């Protein structure tokens, strides 16, 4: 804000209206792309200030009073500190940057100010991508470069006058021309092996699955249409009813919430049948859980399997992450249950849900040792006793399971999984809750399975002797469509918020572009770089090799660009071209045509200098003069004659 | 600082003749091409490059590929703008130089006629001695740029070395070329300040009579719109129509035969400036003059072109 005027030599020129308008547009775009993560009141007041300043300079040609600036900067810093409690970090930094950019406009009066503003705006645009690097956001930000470039261009004097929208066209052309070089640079820029400074903290409010579950807390997730992950299968995909992706296994229940506990034991024993191979691209979650199809056999690199066959990454997933897996839908999980695990799987909080516990105990006495009969009784309860599936369940009291089972009877997967597991435990059957995703949309165009956040699901696992942990999905008993068609289909009958089919279909198809972007661009890392070069016989992808490739690619494009810059349209006047050829040859033997020397004079001088070729030269002169001056439109054969003669003419050096 | 820079440049030009290859005078037309166009980043270009590097480090550090792509895009746009800067000068042609008229010590308007190549040339600056003028040339078009050339002495003055430069399109790169047209402009001599009127031998009496009867020096027929008090009533009485006393050009018909040889008591430069003053005075009132010079004998005449002819002859004197 405070400018050093030490090195200023000349009196500053004033800024024209056009570049100022363009700069205002640039700043407006910056505000727009940052708006989603700025507090709304800051965005609104900055936008108002921007509009006021634009109006003031346009209508009144006035400067903003200088005593305004420092208090405004102080106010901005105060507002940021007030909202975020700090000035540092990603969000406060972005807020401060957007604010300073708008304040910079207040003192923008010279071309230099506008230049600094435009450059700063480029930086601010780029920083918006730290928050969201989706395809649409990236394209919006790239388009935001247009007014910035147009501002810089409009600062040059004596440019062809155009309208404001047309100012953007040359900028677009320039950007489009640079795309090939940008792609080469993007492909070959060596990536850092480890960050130079701390990576940003993940967004805490990111929705999605979490490592605890209480009835009702999924309702936000289930309404979230954003993609959670995309799965491609090698070979045929499993049927819909087998598409259970486990993320968290939860053992402990405190009467309200299910929790998972970190457990560093190795995976329990397993027997499995034929496996299906697939690749998952997971959207950023900020968590370590990696959903995997029931049940993963082997952990990929950078991840490990927990004792309950949950897959956990070594680091939180802050960027889209791709991993390859194989899973077997047929398995015997933990055929022997240790005493400690059995106790954990039967644990129930004291003093909660007396009616549900009584029901479980009654089933046990009623069916004796037949676990399957008890499970069937629970399923029948859900299926026949007037339970319904809804994404907007009524609230539950402190005895949540009792309220649900004997009161409201309306809920979604969390309610069913939770109460089923409690009933099983009450009946003395080891049971636990598993959360993850179920189902998904099969994109026929791209041959992959799109799993949305709204496909989040919870189900129960029951331990049976000799069979190990077996999956039971009580939600399927209430509403089979949930498993066969998905949560929105299951909910469609009960509420009216379901998006119309056409829109959903369109979004499902559009997702193929997002997938391509996530896999091809966002997920392009050192490994992919390596994979890209291996087919070309480059196995060493060190910084040096990449630098060399970058230099070679850059030089290639530089050569192309130079060709473009230096290319001059060939002379369309063939007679003149032939004449120039003649002049060059005659100049080589010492008869150079002088400036302002007519052709007749030149040819006669040449004939005097080369007496042996006098006839030829006189013929050339006559043809040329006739060609030039005799006709409005010279006949083609005359031109041909002259060009032929000019081509064949070789001056013989005079021996003096 | 400025002075040191200038001295350094002079030294560099002396020591590095390759740099000055195109700085010798050359004949028109002068076409700019790749071997005489130089490019360096501007200060803003340097700062912008640093900004790009910061963006690159940020994108790589956060392994944010979208930001990396944006940075690459901006970087390659920057490089492409270098080619555009080069292209804006490439093919530009100084086709002609037209000189104006100026006496020594006053700036002379010199018109540079530029013609475009096969593409438009936007935002070109022509600069010499701190004077900067911006212009644009359309493809195959023609643009005339006027510049004020300061003059000092009469006679032929060569055109200075002229810098053509452009920061087009984004102000990130500075492309420039020197042109040194092999052209001189003719500067007229400076008239002296005050001095005697020319002595015209043998015509003293005639001149006196003219001065005595100044008010009736000329009578002419009445034209509509002549003021009433100018009418010569006495003379009109003897004629059929009204006569009007003409005060406007009382000495118009008097001619000055200016001669170099008459001023033999002065040094040549003083003679020239006196003759220039007389010519100027005669031109101001429309008096016919003739001029004899050792190199040239200009017969009687008047008007702007005659004046220019005489002044050119004076300017060309050794």
Rg of Cα set of chain A: 38 Å
Beta-sheet strand percentage of chain B?
25-35%
Oligomer: heterodimer
Number of helices of chain A: 23
End-to-end CA span of chain A: 78 Å
Structural class of chain A: alpha+beta
Q: If you had to describe this structure to a student in words, what would you say it looks like?
A:
The complex is a heterodimer of chains A (656) and B (318). Chain A has 656 residues and is α+β, with helices and mostly antiparallel strands. Chain A has four domains: 13-185; 212-499, no CATH class; 526-567; 574-648, no CATH class. In chain A, 49% of the residues lie in helices and 13% in strands. In chain A, strands 12-7-2-18-17 form a five-stranded antiparallel β-sheet, with helices on one face. A five-stranded antiparallel β-sheet of chain A has the order 9-3-16-19-20. In chain A, strands 1-5-4 form a three-stranded antiparallel β-sheet, with no helix packed on it. The model of chain A is unreliable at 1-9, 201-206 and 492-498 (pLDDT under 50). Chain B is built from seven helices and 16 strands. Chain B has helices at residues 2-15, 43-61, 65-89, 204-212, 233-238, 268-285, 304-316, and strands at residues 30-31, 38-41, 93-99, 108-115, 121-128, 131-137, 142-149, 155-158, 162-166, 173-179, 184-187, 219-221, 243-245, 256-259, 289-292, 297-301. In chain B, helix 2 packs antiparallel against helix 3 (65-89) and helix 6 (268-285) runs antiparallel to helix 7. The chains are: A alpha+beta (656), B alpha+beta (318). Chains A and B meet through helix 5, helix 6, helix 7 and helix 19 of A and helix 2, helix 3, strand 5 and strand 6 of B.
